[in-house]
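hiii so my PI (J.) wants the whole complex modelled not just the main chain, which honestly fair. so below is everything: two entries, each one labled with what it is. i double checked the lines twice but i was tired so who knows lol
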Amino acid sequence: MESPLSLMVAIPLVGMLLVLVLPSAAHNLIRWTAAAATVPPLLLAGWLFANFDRTEAGFQFVERYAWIPDFGIQYIVGIDGVSITMVLLTALLSFLCVFASWGIDKGVKGYFALFLLLDAAMVGVFVALDFVLFFLFWELMLLPMYFLIGVWGGPRREYAAIKFFLYTMAGSVLILLGILALYFATDPHTFDMTVMIASRDQYPATLQYVLWLAFFIGFAIKIPAFPFHTWLPDAHVEAPTAISVILAGVLLKMGTYGILRVNFAILPEATAELAYTLLGALGAFNIVYGALCAMAQTDLKKLVAYSSISHMGYVMLGMASFTQQGIDGAVLQMFNHGTVTAMLFLLVGVLYDRAHHREIYGFGGIAAVMPVYTGFVALAFFAALGLPGLSAFISEVLVLLGAWQRYPGLAAIGASAVILTAGYMLWTLQRVFLGPLNERYAGLPEISPREVFTLAPLAVLVIGLGVYPQPVLDLIDTTLAQLNAAIAPLL
Amino acid sequence: MDLGNVASLRFIAPELVLVAAALVVFVVDLLVRDDERLADIALGGLALALVSMALVPHELNGWLFGRMLFHDPFAAFFEVIFALSAMATVWMSMGSNEVRRMSQGEYYGLLLLGTVGACFMAAAANLLMAYLALETLSIVSYVLTGFVRHDRRSGEAALKYLIFGGVASGVMLYGMSWLFGLCGSLDLVVIHGVLESGDAPALPLFIAMVLMLAGLGFKISMVPFHMWAPDVYAGAPIPVAAFLSVASKAAGFALLVRLLLPTFSTAGSGGAWHFLAGVDWPQLLLVLSVVTMTVGNLAALQQSGVKRMLAYSGVAHAGYLLMGLVVLSTPGLEAMLFYLIAYYFMNLGAFAVLIVVHNHTGSDAIDGFRGLAWRGGAFPAVAMAAFLFSLIGVPPFVGFFAKLYLFAAVIEQKMYALALIGVLNSVISVGYYFLILRTMFLDRPPAGASAVVTTLHDYAILLILLTATCVFGLWSGPMFAFARYSLQFFAG
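here's the output for the full assembly
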């Protein structure tokens, strides 16, 4: 049977080809075609959610074909508890972002064709279980991203696009070398990740350390972890709204996903040795550093960008704790950050479309003219600062609980940074939305139904998972327990 | 088998067809003066040559013409590459305004004869034959480079090429004479036997090898013998530059592999090769490979003309290709042959797009690409993007798989430093390939720029090369099998 996973990759590609043959002037037809191409993956994601076996730790819905037999390269797709959450997130955000891109009116055909290519590549990264296939999707993602930022971005788009490409490319060549070294270290030679995971005991310790660092640098650039993070503010600020959403909502997760999939699962000994410094301590540092940077920003989008660095720090800290709570919290945080930050970027986009600037000090009293909009903003901001009852609170608490058991010092640092987060979020809320109304913006129109349509599903998730996070935790728990059991005894 | 002159003829049917086609082109040009038909004749001749390549019996390997030529899969592989390169060159020339202004009879005729020279170079079983074939190709290249009459740059490029080439082949000839003195024969198989017996002293052998490397390094544009490339590419008509970048380079690699592996080395177990003479030439080649790719990439960063940029990119790719030799293993060589196929598609594609732009602007300056995607040139711009991504080595294009196989062979030999330098070079190359990408897509067209016209002819050739670039990577099984099969040397 055709695996739903292959279809989830293939359908956006078919949509891309359809978009390419449509006449360039038929803007609405192109938009609707793109939207239609993201619906089946979303439905399939729903089907996966319903049929996923929550008691099985290994890979499910696996499909396997010989591809380039001379090199042992296969087409293998499959998902476990970690990847299914990311696949769900990708399918949802891709669907919503088509509607968030409705306002694009320059080069519409090119934009949506590239967008669908990006969609296919993102799902591909999360479902690929053959290393060459994984790398192929990983790099394939860069091509549309370069053009989406570079052509449809803001004033400094050229700089931001090439910086993004060069950083990621530099990281991915290290990953490529790591993949090849793993290939030759596995006997018999194979690129099959499942075989590598099964034979993880045969890799010599020195090789593990070198490979761990190579993969880690490659993935850390994507997270992004200090000191590889400088591409992120530029790329986020210049990218069009929907692309910022994808970038923060999905692409950043690929860094931590890669570390779980490769460093944790294939190189456990090196993970046990290096995780404290390079994931735990660096994660705690990222939390504080990102928050402090965010506090200093006067551009709304840059503020959200730096807050992402801070929030991804929780993921790193949780992963490094090697406790069930911590590692569950980390993956839950990946999902929750995806929804919350997507909301934040969408909301910044809504305001920018109306006021044509994003200066925090240039507004004031917006709540009076856009009350519904302000309601959404308040929800997203409170979720981002970890208000109990909203989704990010659960994941951050789980991370801190887990981290406390292993490294109380780091947990204390991570917990106290919540104050910084609350600080910049609340100050921003006050400066932009409260206070006396800036007369220039007295006539701003309220949020449109299309914009509400892109925000509402995310708001439901933020509230829903804040009250009852079990649906996601059920998905990830078994897989992570098994992963943790392989590493925790080595500590 | 060891065939005499008459019995050998049917094995060189492709070359005979090419010579006949060249003669027909000359005669028709003399009698009819119908320029349109000449290119068709050349194309027909090349197609016929390709057909005869398929029909020549491949199950028999051996010597032809009294041990002057080899007949083996390795030679056949390169014959196919050369014929396809010439075919693409002729086809590109038909759509090039530059070529349209030249006297076409000599142009197409010489191109066919140059192809014959390249074919014999890959098949040479004797140093004398190798030298003659190399000179045939070289002299044709010199003339074709200077073919744009009344153009100072073209003439200057041809003269520079001639002087550089003359010196390089002279040095190589001198190296061959050393080798003859040491081994007492020009026959490659005999030389191999002498080396295997260990009678030849190591140091003079090394000197002979270095001297011969000068001539071959010149052909493959290896540093420090690469200086001609940017000037010659810039001065030559674009289709000729394309021919030089693919066919001439492949011919150089064919002879280099033939000399260094089956002649100077012996096949060991498990796909490893062992060098016979006491001197460590792989170490020398390793240094040359690293220097070549680094110099090529760094110099390409500085260029403002696309032809010069592609010339330096060609230098860098010669460096990557050399890695396949450095590792001294069968997987390395297979990867190298695959890389040559990949390079054929992606590099010719880049030149084909350059012709479209050049026809419009009359120059190869990068400014000509400004906003190409937004002024009627969306298809060539997208195609160019694919070719450039492929040249960088980004999936899913064929260039990625070529690099993957090559780096796999390097890692297999545990040469991690070389692999790291290689991939870092790929990152450097992003700098200049993206300059073109940025200019095409991110820059707006200059005010008052007219729309670029892409003819049906341009569409056809770009579509073929684009499809190949996209497909042969993802579906690299057949190409890889071809490369693997071709790695059979006849050795007596």
